Write the structure tokens for this entry.
Amino acid sequence: MLKITPTLIVEDTLNGVITRLERIIDESRKSGSPMGYFAALYHKVTVKVKEDVVSGMFGDGKNIVKLDIQFANRYFAALEQWQQGKPVSKSWQVAFDATKKPSYLILQHLLLGMNAHINLDLGIATYEASEGNLAAFKKDYDQINLILSSLTYGVMSNLGTLSPLLSFLGFSGTNSNSMLVQFSMGNARDGSWCFADDLVTSTDYDKTIAERDKEIFELGQSLITSRVFLRFGIWLIHLFERKRVHKVMDVLYKHHKPYKKELTGLKS
């Protein structure tokens, strides 16, 4: 069983988180790796959180900044460990390993990253940031999930420019075969909160996380392992999908960085 250590904070400000995400994105563009797809989505979310904190939407913003930083650092730690060939959670292993295979859809890469980060990391980060006092973080937890949901579905709705057949074949809507049905943001949000609550009452922290990791790994596997009919649909979508990573990144990630000029009112 993988030993789960407390989150190592390598970036302790929102600006630091944003800069690190940009570094992952830039490296992915240069190397042609789809690793940057999830980082591009995550960048949008973090910049939006920063904007809303500065605007005063979250009061003094301390709790949501703490949660956001804790959350992001779990992703950074998992990525660094994987790149160094060290053990990572099963949920992240399936997501990172998928970036080495050219046959997966852009949508699949995004969902695999979201699956590991939201369904596993968010509950751990919430537990750690709240120091067990979940009630004090519930409002901020809900707010960060509203931002995440809004921006995620915004990105998903624009995937048609990269995957013309995605909606046509029912993979991005409410069709029963849709991958988005398998991965529901509402279910992920509620499940992560229940997971955080389980960690508060758990008498075996590592075992509780390992059991959750196994469930989320299986969900991740289901996103890339399909029945024959679905495999044909995925193959057909992939056939007409944009393949050049830098072209995909141009759509998923915009290079303007307003926060460095406009968002100077908050140190974090």
Notes: Residues 14-262 form one domain. The chain has one domain: 14-262. The CA atoms of residues 167 and 173 lie 7 Å apart.
